[in-house]
Amino acid sequence: MGIVLGPNRYGKAETRVVRIVRDTPRHEIHDLNVSTSLRGDFAAAHTDGDQSQVLPTDTQKNTAFAFAKRHGVTSPEDYALALGGRLLGATPAATGATVSVEEYAWDRILVDDAGHDHAFVRRGGEVRTTLVDVTADEVVVVSGLHDLVVLKSTGSEFKGFLRDDYTTLPDADDRILATALHATWQYAADAAARPVDWNATYDAVRALLLATFATTYSRALQETLYAMGSAVLEAHEEIEEISFAAPNKHHFLVDLEPFGLDNPGEVFVAADRPYGLIEATVTRSSEEGR
Amino acid sequence: MGIVLGPNRYGKAETRVVRIVRDTPRHEIHDLNVSTSLRGDFAAAHTDGDQSQVLPTDTQKNTAFAFAKRHGVTSPEDYALALGGRLLGATPAATGATVSVEEYAWDRILVDDAGHDHAFVRRGGEVRTTLVDVTADEVVVVSGLHDLVVLKSTGSEFKGFLRDDYTTLPDADDRILATALHATWQYAADAAARPVDWNATYDAVRALLLATFATTYSRALQETLYAMGSAVLEAHEEIEEISFAAPNKHHFLVDLEPFGLDNPGEVFVAADRPYGLIEATVTRSSEEGR
Amino acid sequence: MGIVLGPNRYGKAETRVVRIVRDTPRHEIHDLNVSTSLRGDFAAAHTDGDQSQVLPTDTQKNTAFAFAKRHGVTSPEDYALALGGRLLGATPAATGATVSVEEYAWDRILVDDAGHDHAFVRRGGEVRTTLVDVTADEVVVVSGLHDLVVLKSTGSEFKGFLRDDYTTLPDADDRILATALHATWQYAADAAARPVDWNATYDAVRALLLATFATTYSRALQETLYAMGSAVLEAHEEIEEISFAAPNKHHFLVDLEPFGLDNPGEVFVAADRPYGLIEATVTRSSEEGR
Amino acid sequence: MGIVLGPNRYGKAETRVVRIVRDTPRHEIHDLNVSTSLRGDFAAAHTDGDQSQVLPTDTQKNTAFAFAKRHGVTSPEDYALALGGRLLGATPAATGATVSVEEYAWDRILVDDAGHDHAFVRRGGEVRTTLVDVTADEVVVVSGLHDLVVLKSTGSEFKGFLRDDYTTLPDADDRILATALHATWQYAADAAARPVDWNATYDAVRALLLATFATTYSRALQETLYAMGSAVLEAHEEIEEISFAAPNKHHFLVDLEPFGLDNPGEVFVAADRPYGLIEATVTRSSEEGR
């Protein structure tokens, strides 16, 4: 029985590409963190140290910068599609290329109630993401966001759960529900061809996730995630599937009774660890959903 | 020659107090990270292990939670003043108490263009801070913010600097200027007594810092900071002094010439380390300033 | 076409369990970060808010603590196997349970050249990991380490690579090779039954990874990883497969020529981002390996 | 009343200098994070944008790299003294220069029980630090370490403390005491002139801190810190003063009674926040200490 190379890939991670659009005095900024990787038949590099089929990660980085100029950046998705196609084409041994992009949002600084032409303040909050995978046969686009931190101060319960010998948690009729949402949604196979308006779709999905979180009475974080995912799939036929990873950021009611104070849902301690972690995918079926 | 105890203090750091105001269906949220410390004559605890004068850090934590209910949280400053006074009063051996608060901002989630009553999204961006120091004689309030990340895509130069044998940097006529601003401003001694409107002042100072950053042509980050500080002192007579620590977050122009591309200020790499670090205080003088 | 629930799981992440063995005056410490999750038919929780089949994450946390006492901790693997079995058994709707453990190593503090009985200093360096997956039919144990930071100051080249229009990297005959190694190895299906000596195997694999890194002349990080993986599989028939994720932590030679200094591999800048990222699996085949 | 510039300084932070000593086949590595700053009369840069007296932070970085070659690195202190002297000398407007260095330790990789010539593994654990301040008149050297994480599983109590209305903490007869030690010690004014053996002193102080922590019965973290500081000052007359910042990393005993288990100091949860924070300086006096 022999020892063989299994799945492998390589690339350049976290190239910090900042693209300023300055065609007019009103500049725009695209602030990206770009990671690329190639997979395919690179066995010789592993077993014989033969680099002749290996496009260096340094070249991948150079290409990321060059394409920010040559192709430009109108959206992370559009840029990643171009970059992934180039890397795949430039590397005969590669069978697939992935480009992963994080985008950090900036707002114009307000001066006398108007956005300034070339001064910006980083928005903070969630990071927009995309992961584009390119092969000879197909292109897959999975976009998303992470660290969208949301909280409901009421409208959330957790009760009627399974109990065993190690269960001490009481039912909760009214609790804080908070999470740092990570969501990724896969576009339909023809999305790049249509093409989808990536920026408008991102804004719409984000708004829908937030509104659904706000307006859904929650009997568990699971139920909230399912509602959010269903809402997105119902509204966006160009999206095939959406996945969530949501840490349940516990806010525990503080016992103020020893100090002669009641605490009807007013003072909480925000805990760091441990945290619940709920992961779920909502997808489409050829049959009726439940 | 003997060995003696020098300066010392102790306290509870990073108590994560979340206060929900739910007097009406339209909730409010105050999300705080509270650190307290006491100083005074605690020598016996160090030299003899005698805790009889030591109010435990656990009690300091309890007090932080209890005061979020008993006193309430209208601003970090107001809350910190109450908490600091309590801790000093409760500890006979203490000569001073400091309360440091970070506040994380939340926005209401928009549903049909209106802010929801009890669902929030964390704003991200800068963190608001205050440091209150209370002694028998005086109260010092130093408020501020950190990690306000700003960037100008033009309107910044750096040239005519001192050169020595190790200088290779060329003059820059037009560069990106970016920083993650840390600013702290000390209020006048009577600020707590007036009292100042802490929240309105914070908003005004933040807006003024941003607008001055945007509209000042910069010949160095130092000049920008001085302009920002001067603007704040001119507009806010209740503020005595303002200090900055500002990492110069370098954005280096990428050389695209090897790829047959020009790069007139369009594609940059955002560097992590090293970074310039500029620190400056702008203050008042009984004489005319320069 | 309907909307349906796809893959999902839930659990408690990052429960910080510290177990002191104090059966004799010579204490031992096991310092763990434990994450558990359950998967199975939890659809009702998502679609109907019905928690009746959901063992709370709070209970999972309690069980993690209780099992540190009831079962004890001799190795992360042994503890995780017991905990995973319990969680699966306690949850009728679950078809699988995973337990992920990080272990932080501590050394005894040296006093007069002897290790102290009950005083420890955290070792730092790499973190030991295990991921145990339990179903009715089988148990999978994947152990590993992360952040084992290694560096060779010579004995590494990178040349003869594929070049395209975006390639500017020159051949390197002698460079620093450095990485923060993440490695995971999957044990054979019968490993838990034998049982394997988990601690001894961990120590042996770690030592072998290090020695192979040290003694392999590297024509690429890929070649080094393959050599390390092969060495482990050759020496440990109880291991089926080993996977690596290795950031190429670039150390760039600093150009000192402007200062009249040569730099024959002596002064480097350690870069943060971007970094190469090499991922590879070495596995067994029924055929001869290449 | 005017607005004026107050205290200010500027420099380059976190230059990651890696120095390989390869005079023989048995290489050595010095892995440093170097921050420099200059203070003096730099008012014109702030008020008039005049850079003519400003040695760029880019030049400071260059100098840090050049001095790693020209002067070499035998210890962080020796290197920082040389670098600080150079920067002060090169900048006429400067009245002081500070150089702050973190050093990350590496061990030789063991191959057949012998340390390899040019392959290293990062040790982890504490970071060694020095802060050197150079003016025309004097040189101050403050060395130290941070994140030396230590724990005692017994031999620590906390009781007899001051109680008020917000105190709920019970006396603890036997608890875990753990901290991530930050310590800085100031050398005597003539230390650089003697010179002190910086590396040997560092090792000795570190060992003494650890041994004292281990062997001192603790009635409070304050008492432990004072004992550690006293031990250092007693053993090292070349050290004037030592300061500590020590987070009390709480390990809370888990209540296992609901599960029918006792817990005599065996199972703890390691908490992240909040944490006690104890700061103390131990110094010398012309009088007898208490």
From TrEMBL, chains A, B, C, D:
Pathway assigned to this chain's UniProt record: Purine metabolism; urate degradation; (S)-allantoin from urate: step 1/3
UniProt enzyme class: oxidoreductase
Keyword Oxidoreductase: yes
One Pfam family recorded for the sequence: Uricase
Catalytic activity reported: urate + O2 + H2O = 5-hydroxyisourate + H2O2
Keyword field: Oxidoreductase, Purine metabolism
Source superkingdom: Bacteria
GO molecular function: urate oxidase activity
EC number from the UniProt entry: 1.7.3.3
Stated family: Belongs to the uricase family.
Function: Catalyzes the oxidation of uric acid to 5-hydroxyisourate, which is further processed to form (S)-allantoin.
NCBIfam families assigned: urate_oxi (TIGR03383)
Protein's recorded name: Uricase
Organism per entry: Nocardioides astragali
Gene: pucL
